Amino acid sequence: MTVEWARGGPDLLVVLDRGAGPLRIQIQDQLRAAIRDRRLGAGESLPSTRRLAELLGVSRGTVVDVYEQLLAEGYVESTVGSGTRVAEMPAGPVRHSPDVVAASPSRPAEVDFEYGIPDLGSVPLTDWSWAVSEATRSLPTAELGDEDPAGLRHLREVVTAYHRRVRSGCAVAEDAVVVSGFRQGLAFALATLAQHGIQRIALEDPGPREHDVIARRAGLDAVPVPVDDHGLDVGRLRETGARAVLLTPAHQCPTGVALGPSRRRDLVAWADEVDGVILEDDYDAEFRYDRQPVGSLQGLAPARVIALGSVSKTLAPAIRLGWVLAPPRFTPGIVEEKRLSCRGAPGLDQEALALLMESGRFDRHLRRVREIYRARRDVLAAEAERAFGPGRLQGLAAGCHALLRLPDGTSERAVVETAAAMGVRVNGLADYRSGDAEDPQSPALVLGFGNVSEHQITRGIRALATAVRHQTHGRG
After folding, report:
1. In this structure, are residues 377 and 287 in contact, taking their beta carbons and an 8 Å threshold?
2. CB 3.0 to 4.6 Å from 111: which of 385, 448, 449, 460, for a disulfide?
3. Exposed (0-12), middle (13-18) or buried (19+): which is 467, by Cβ within 10 Å?
4. Distance of CA 223 to CAs 113, 234, 243, 325, 428, Å?
5. CA nearest 194: which of 168, 214, 174?
6. Cα separation, 256 vs 264, whole angstroms
7. Residues paired with residue 246 on neighbouring β-strands, in sequence order
8. What is the largest CA-CA distance in the chain?
9. Sign of CA dihedral 327, 260, 234, 232
10. 280 has which bridge partners?
11. SS3 label, residue 281
C-alpha cells in the first residue's frame, strides 16, 4: 500500500559530500539507489524541487535537473497537480531478513472464533475520545513528565476502588502498579517472585497459552496441574512442590469452569502451608450471565494473592493498560522491575482511563456489551445443540468463550484444518494443553464469540459440524 504523505511528505535523507564530485550526480545516485532498494515505494511522492533544494542547500535548478534525469530514466513520473512520484519498478528479487520465514498463504477467515478478542465494533471510541480530551485539558503540566514508577496515582486509586466495589477486593492505591497490559504485569510479578526465592510455579492444564514460556523466561520452573469440572485440582497442586500458582478462577481458560468454593478454601490453605503465592488472572469476570458474581481471590486472601487485570478484553487490546494488585512485600519489587524495563504506560491514557471509569462510561459500556455477548452466547448454544447434540458446549455461564466437546476419537487438528479451508478459524484444546498433545478421549474446540456476529456464529458452527462429519467419515 502506498503511503500518502501530506504536502510532499517528511524530509528526504540525502547526504552530500561537497568535496566528492558534482552534487547533481550525488543526488541522482542516492535517489536511484533508494528507489531500486524500494526504500521509496512505488507511488510515493518526492519533495517539491524547491523544498528539496532548501533541505540540501543547493540551487533549485540542480534539483530540477535531477528530477528530469530520473524522469527520463523511468525512475519517477510527474503529473500536473500530483507532483513527482516514484514510478512502478519491474519486479525484482525480494529482500528478506535471513531470520524471517515467509508465511504460507491461506484463505482469509470469514468466521474467526479466536479466544480473547472483544467486540471491536463496540469499542466506546466516542467515550474514549472524550476521556482523552478531558485528560489533556485537566491533567496538570507537572504530570506530563516521567510518571511515578508505580503509575499515575489517580488511576491506581480508581482501579483499586473499582476492584473493592465490583470484585470484593481489598487493595488500596499503594498496592497497585499500572502496567502496559496483563503480560507485562505477569512478567514483572514472576521476576519478583523469583527474587523472593520461589523457584517453581504451577499452571493450569489446559490453560492460557504461553504462560509456561513467560514463567521460564523469568527463571521459574513451570509445572502443569490438571483442571476438572471444579477448577484447578488443589490436591494435585500439593504434589508439585510449587510455591506459586497462576490460575483463572472466575472463568477458567479455556474450559470455562469456575473455581468451586471448597477449592478456593483449599487453595488458600495450600498457600498458607507452603508460604506460597496465588496469581489471579481476573480476565473476564465482568461478563456473567446465568450465575451470581464470584468475588476476587484477592479479597479472600490479600496477603497471598497477586491479582492481575487489564482492559484488553473489556475495552480493546489497543488500549494497552493493565494493573497488578500485590501484597506489600512484593509491590516494591514489581515497581523496580517496571522501572528498569520501561518508562511506564502513557500518562495521558492512564488519566483517560481513570476518568472513563469514574464518569460511569466504563460501566455503561460493560452493561451494553454484556447484552451483546449474552445474545451471541444464546445463538452459539442453540446452533451447537442443533449441530452436535445436547451437552457438548460448556463454560457458558460467563465470559466470551466456550468449549465444544467433540466425539471421542475425533482429531482436533483435522477438524481445525478442514474448517480453515472453509474459511472458519478455530483453535483445538491441544493448543492450551501442556506440550500441545491431543487427547483422543477428550477432543474439543475453543470457541471465542466476542468478536463474531450472530450470523457468523451460525455459519461457523455449521461449517464445524461439516468438518467433524468429514473427519469422522474419513476415519471410518
Report:
1. no
2. 460
3. buried
4. 28, 13, 11, 24, 21
5. 214
6. 16
7. 203, 279
8. 84
9. negative
10. 247, 307
11. strand
Query: Facing residues of 244 across strands?
Result: 201, 277
- Between CA 447 and CA 402 the distance in angstroms is 5
The CA-CA-CA angle for residues 15, 21, 22, to 5°, reads: 80
Alpha helix stretches (DSSP H) within 232-305: 234-238, 261-274, 297-300
Report the predicted TM-score, pTM, of the whole model to 2 decimal places: 0.82
Question: By C-alpha distance, which of 254, 213, 258, 260 is closest to 442?
Answer: 254
Phi, psi of 355 (to 5 degrees): -65, -40
> Under DSSP, is residue 95 helix (H, G, I), strand (E, B) or coil?
coil
* Lookup result for grid cell 568535496: 19
Asked if residues 264 and 271 have their Cβ atoms less than 8 Å apart, the reply is no
Residues 218/224/230/231 CA torsion (nearest 10 deg): 20
Helix 331-341 and helix 182-195, axial crossing angle in degrees, nearest 10:
120
Helices (H), 57-181: 60-73, 125-138, 153-167
The residue ranges of DSSP E strands in 286-371, in sequence order, are 305-310, 322-325
